[in-house]
Amino acid sequence: MTTLVLALGNPLRGDDGVGAAVLNALPDLPPDVTGLDGGTPGLGLVLSLQGYDRAIILDAAEMGETPGTWRRFSPDCLRAQDPDLRGTLHDAGLAEALLLGEALRVLPSEIIIFGIQPGEIGWSPGLTPAVAAAIPGLCEAIMTACAARADSE
Predict the structure, then answer these.
(1) CA-wise closest residue to 5 among 14, 19, 16
(2) N or C: which end of the chain has fewer CB within 10 A?
(3) What is the CATH T-level fold of the domain 3-152, as seen in this structure?
(4) Where are the domains of the chain?
């Protein structure tokens, strides 16, 4: 079982860089887990996901919540336009890439999306304090998700 932890976003745009910040804060990943900073790939996301059994995607998400709030979603939430998820900041690219990957039958069998509510998206690097404060809890949830699948095999 191979797992990809994929961070999306642009660290030069404030809280949009939270995915990369979380990825960098994760402790040592198990040998069957690969961490990748995917940037803002658009449909190219399909290529990053190909060949893995499971993917955990990290991205800033507009949910109408307090900055730093994070939630776990499935790809179905993007397809159904879940009212709690107004979309990741890359919603068109992420949603379209997942639909393309599904049509091509190259997606991992399990995809988990962790969306983090941004506070400020601008043209300066660095996270707001509220979003930065959410990183430890999110790292714990990601490591738990990695361990849960490994324990069930």
Answers:
(1) 19
(2) C
(3) Rossmann fold (3.40.50)
(4) 3-152
